[in-house]
Amino acid sequence: MTTTPSRRRKQRVSMADVARLAGVSSQTVSRVSNGHPSVVGSTREQVLAAMKHLGYRPNSAARALRYGEFHTIGVILFSLTSTGNSRTLEAIATHAAGEGYAITLIPVAVPTQDHVLGAFTRLGELAVDAVIVIMEIHLLDTATVTLPPGVHVVVVDSDAGDRYSVVDTDQTDGTRQAVRHLLELGHRTVWHVAGPAESFAGERRAMAWRASLEEAGCEVPPVRRGDWSGESGYAVGLRLADEPGCTAVFAGNDQMALGLLRAFHEKGKVVPRDVSVVGFDDIPDAASFIPPLTTVHQDFAEVGRACVQGVLRQIRSDTPSVPGTTLVSTRLVTRRSTAPPAR
Fold it and tell me: What global pTM score does this model have?
């Protein structure tokens, strides 16, 4: 089999070449490749730029990407506790298995650039063909994520679509459907229990909530924040129950909506007679809440399928991640937790 000139050039790139271009030692290049925290930010960026310019990849990752023999997809994620992450991971595993691929999971304990690079190095040592990164939250030490160059990668739930292939739920449209539903029922405004500020999904839903109210000419109440848990929704709900103008609430996820239902019940508020509640996710138990929860349905199975198909296209064509964002549509599921406000 003949080898193209570009492929021969990439195979000749060594750690020493990167070190020479970046003006650092080979040991520093090795530390950056392994995500070692001792490398200062400016030096790390200089080395990463040299890697990108030369098309350098650690040998083990390059071997996997070049031959595609391993039939394994690595998955990097920061948390398994959230519904979105766990259901997305389940969907990725299911669709990967259907394509004859296994997955290797690497949890990242601290969301920093160095820990992400370290996770990529570990996956390279485990010989994977591509990587799916379930980003979920902003990195603590940088405004944008930087991944090793030349790797087949798809990023989930991120704003990195200008640099990588990204798959995400259409958070904005789902939120607008929820807010529009409540306003069309006759509520003068909609209060919001948002997810954590560092969450991409929580941030987009909060922004879309505010924009929807402003576009409708409605007053924008102060945003209340939770941490995705039912307990945080309950704590916020106890306070919202004392707000006389609160007749409708959009919760950032179904667990927080469940906490709201409990708090309103304990405070003597009847849902939906006194206050309407809408969630986001449409978890399997949402229809079993009391009352059954109106919520925004996320198609996690389609998100998982799109991620797997995205990395498989890169593997089969031997091309790196192509910038752009694939949005998976959402839909409002109307149940009995919403109604027109009491007159």
Answer: 0.77
Q: Outline where 99-199 has alpha helix (H).
A: 113-125, 171-184
H or E element at residue 76: strand 72-77
* 277/260 Cα distance (integer angstroms): 8
Residue for token digits 């969450």? Answer: 199
Q: What is the DSSP letter of 292?
A: P
Beta strands in 129-200 (DSSP E): 130-134, 153-156, 165-169, 191-194
Sign of CA dihedral 148, 301, 161, 179: negative
Write out the two tokens for 115. 């820990």
Per-residue pLDDT tens over the stretch 195-254 = 998 888 999 999 999 999 999 999 999 999 999 999 999 999 999 999 989 999 999 999
Please count the helices (runs of H) and the strands (runs of E) in the chain: 12, 12
Separation of alpha carbons 106 and 322, rounded Å: 23
Do residues 195 and 227 make contact, with C-beta atoms less than 8 angstroms apart?
yes
pLDDT tens profile 155-209:
998 777 788 899 999 999 999 999 999 999 999 999 999 999 888 899 999 999 9
- Can you read off the two tokens belonging to residue 120? 């990529």
**Cα dihedral value 290, 295, 300, 302, nearest 10:** 130
